[in-house]
Write a structure and sequence with these properties.
This protein has 4 helices and 15 strands. It is an alpha+beta fold and 258 residues long. The chain has one domain. The radius of gyration is 18 Å and the shape is globular.
């Protein structure tokens, strides 16, 4: 496990394969936050705060069940339900911070490590523009020797009017190091429909790096939401069918991992 908290500068790409091909690419950055060290970052950094306004900030209530309860306890409880015990190992959250008090995270990723440092589980926290949130809590099993995890689960949250509910997610990535990367494939009954990839290069989480990020990615979180709605409009113009049916979903989902 490389370091603890960090900044990752990179981007995201969404590629839809049918019934009309469509591509979205956007430059963004994330913070990788060791949940046990966020208060220390608050004390050390001038441009970052926990649970109070700043240029960049992290609010516990923006994640988990929204109650502000300790996130580690929430994650550990969900992992216990799938038979994963961390034994005090680190939990690191890859997420976008609030920028000038505003944030929207389509996906945040909890990298959950066992006491010996190995990656034991991933919790994918997905939030929709409709204000709903779900977790896909998946154990990490022994891989193929390439250091990557591969996991699948059923989609349980309505996130887009251009995607059916009866779909499966495929996750592929590795523990954050000098780089971070994650690919999410979305499959329906006909096969692959959409692929979303994120990547970033590690930077030290320091005031200098945060200041440079503010210049390189101005009003980033507002632009993320604007891009989501703009791309939805373009899909509608292309004649991609709209699915408005929604149904209740469980708070978290289980799946298969390798």
């Amino acid at each position: 496990m490389t370091g603890a908290s960090a900044l990752y500068a990179g981007g995201v790409v969404h590629q839809r394969l049918r019934p009309r091909r469509h591509r979205l690419e956007q430059r963004v950055f994330w913070l990788l936050l060791d949940l046990s060290g966020v208060d220390g970052l608050d004390r050390r950094l001038k441009l970052f705060s926990r649970n109070r306004w700043n240029l960049f900030s992290f609010f516990d209530s923006d994640h988990g069940d929204g109650s502000g309860r300790p996130l580690r306890a929430q994650v550990e409880a969900r992992l216990a339900a799938i038979g994963v015990e961390l034994g005090g190992g680190a939990i690191r959250l890859l997420t976008m911070p609030r920028v000038l008090g505003y944030v929207f995270n389509p996906i945040s990723v909890y990298y959950c490590h066992a006491a010996d440092g190995r990656l034991a589980a991933i919790s994918y926290e997905v939030t929709s523009t409709f204000g709903e949130r779900r977790w896909y809590d998946l154990a990490v099993e022994a891989g193929d020797g390439d250091g990557l995890f591969r996991q699948t689960c059923a989609k349980t949250l309505y996130v887009s009017p251009f995607m059916e509910m009866e779909m499966r997610y495929r996750f592929r990535g590795g523990a954050p190091g000098d780089r971070v990367g994650l690919t999410v494939g979305c499959d329906d009954a006909r096969g692959p429909l959409l692929t979303a990839s994120l990547w970033g290069e590690r930077r030290p989480l320091a005031d200098g790096a945060l200041a440079r990020a503010a210049i390189a990615y101005p009003l980033m979180t507002l632009k993320v939401v604007a891009a989501i709605h703009w791309e939805a409009f373009l899909l509608w113009l292309k004649g991609v069918p709209v699915t408005l049916a929604r149904r209740p979903a469980p708070a978290s989902a289980r799946g298969a991992a390798s």
